[in-house]
Amino acid sequence: MPKGDLHMGLFDAFSRDIGIDLGTANTLVFLKGKGVVVQEPSVVAMDMDTGKVLSVGLDAKQMLGRTPANVKAVRPLRDGVIADFDVTEEMLRYFMRKVHNSMGLVKPKVVVGCPSGVTEVERRAIVDAVMRAGAREAHLIEEPKAAAIGAGLPVTEATGSMIVDIGGGTTEVAVLSLGGIVSSISSRTAGDEMDDAIIQHMKKAYNLLIGERTSEEVKQKIGSAYVVGPETYLEVRGRDLVTGLPKTVKVDSTEIREALAEPVGTIVNAVKECLEKTPPELSADVMDRGIILAGGGSLLQGLDKLLSRETGISVFVCEDPLTAVARGTGIVLDHLEYLKGLSASSRRYQQG
User: Which of 61, 199, 223, 309 has its CA 20 to 30 A from that of 217?
Assistant: First the structure.
């Protein structure tokens, strides 16, 4: 290898900055020059007797509801913010080391997406966790802005763009123009609330207790927000609350759609409320360009059609909605100073 190439290789190895979508349900890591390289559940399995982390991510999620008494699979983020600081730090350290095996030497610059409605205390907690996990510098950017950038919307232009980012813990609705957020709503009704609504429905309708993983599976397979085709059915297994024995019931997509009506309705109302707060000139732009959906919750069948019916505006799901925020944080890594309005709404923290 020529000497120049070796020098560039060493430089590249020590300059790999990362973007993180620190989500309630999933954490995604964008590596500069590589794209999204980590996409795993935000779950940590711990030995409660010793406090030791046993596994993180996909392996830990497989343990949800299936662990012995001394092992607990926990989700350290709730409603888009840190609920357990120490566990979040361990989870971040794991993911960052997964990207950089030599994390002891590499101290990356990190851009993290956070909900637009978080408090300054919650912002500081995110930054502290990232810095203690091994970052040399941390930047925060609101998730709706990152999602809009990742979805390819012209956020720096003098035109209105509307993004609805539906994650696990929060739904972020925002209208952006000239690099800034003009109007926004941050709702703590999102994918987790949908899962909980299905759990409650199974209890009331069938006296059947199901876990988070089963509820999520039901949502993904037969869940919908709007009638999009023939009704479908699914066999659901759980524990009978009366006998305490295992039980299987057959549910249809109609009853699941009805069970999801309340959380879905809350999301629709958040979109309407954000539109009501939007200046008329930008509202006209949104009418012309449509509403863009991102996040895992946008994959709920018929949600785009329901929102279009309720608002009278065309609604589109962006390409690869699960990675929109992560891709946005990655783009911001190269344009921290260029993106107009970023310095007013993001925060920068450095080691030392």
Answer: 309
Per-residue pLDDT tens digits for 173-190: 999 999 889 999 999 999
Residues 252 and 222: beta-carbon distance below 8 Å? yes
**What is the end-to-end Cα distance of the chain in Å, rounded?**
37
pLDDT value at 13 more than 70? no
Helix 120-132 to helix 85-99 angle (10° resolution) is 50
Question: Which homologous superfamily does the CATH classification assign to the domain defined by 3-145+326-350?
Answer: ATPase, nucleotide binding domain (3.30.420.40)
Structure tokens at 138: 């941390």
Polymer length in residues for the chain = 352
One of 3.30.420.40, 3.40.1360.10, 2.40.400.10, 3.20.20.70 is the CATH number of 151-189+265-321, namely 3.30.420.40
Cα distances from 303 to residues 55, 148, 311, in angstroms, run: 34, 18, 12
